[in-house]
Amino acid sequence: MASPMPPRKPPQDRSRLEQQIIDIVSSAKGRSQLSPDQLEELVAAVNALEQNGGTPAPTRDSALDGKWKLLFTSSPGTNSPIQRTFTGVESFSIFQEVSLQGDEEARVNNCVDFGLKFGFLRVEAQASTESRPLPGFTPRAGSGESFFGGLFGKSSTEPPARPNSRIDFQFDKAAFYFKFLPFSIPYPVPFRILGDERKGWLDVTYMSEDRMFRLSRGNKGTLFILQKDVPLKERLLDALSQNMDDDKVMSLLTALAKQNPTSAPARSPKAGGRWRLIWSQQSSDASPLQKWGSKQAKSYQVIGADGSLRNIVDLGSWLRLTAIATCQPASATRTNVSISQAGLMFGEGKWDKPWFFQLSGPRQTKDGEPEPPGWVEWLYLDDDLRVTQGSKGSLFVHRREEDS
Known about the structure:
The protein is of the alpha+beta class. 17% of the residues lie in helices and 35% in strands. The protein contains 6 helices and 18 strands. The chain is elongated. The termini are far apart.
């Protein structure tokens, strides 16, 4: 009788574990160098995700195809000297190109990028999967210990843990591609005469819900932690379009803020214009009106060059809820905002003089004094995307729209 599968963790728990792993390996001294405490924490998180498995049948999933960046690899004594040489050099970026779907021959290639000025090494392999077997291919069976004393490392013969999770492969060609040469240089390993030693397998032991993070185990016991080589901004927008859980979005926002391309966003001309709200996380202290407005399909903020600011919730072609304010930079990354009034605007854009029904005026403290201005902290700003945090802790993601 088969043992029951462990209960699947909710997506929020998996997202936290994924981010925990990324944080650990990001702080490591090298792709395989961790302190004992870091290693213990990493192993626990990896084991939890691998027990869950993530996306089922990953080798049948088209999202596995693409370019993956190696973040971390373990270094067991069973892997080959060649593998240890390249993965151990931090100045090199290492990628894996997976192509299992489509009409072309299934392949999995490993690339070592020496930098834009130099070039790269690509080691190519034919791939075979459960759903798409390579004609005439026989998977590796031996351990490799008898081949030159195990020069290329010791291979495991254990079966895959889950259906449609293993990629069998056999290396067939490799070459160096240098920028300063008009031709490639063959890699000095005669794969075709190596027999079983040019074969191996790679198990996808976990792939995230958004298909951007995965764990893999090789036939020589090596753990590979990889992330899809997609710009963070694109990953964030994709996560928002798929309504990913807030933990996943928050981890992407935190990473994106570290890549903010605008040094003084609060003073930048880019901050002005018409911005549409596409995501928010409201703090418990946010006003009921703000919480309600952030959930509407068409919510905007318009910042003028003259320091004017309007928050607009579009309720139809003739009716808008509008908050009128002034704003000014308080620092390179912070903008002070003073709301003067809020109300319903009828006929804006339709009548020469739209009618404004005021719902509230300038805010006051309990003592009747004018309330200090709120503020917005700019976490990220480029030509068409911004991430901000309000003075009460709410987070906002806006996309630029043309003025209407």
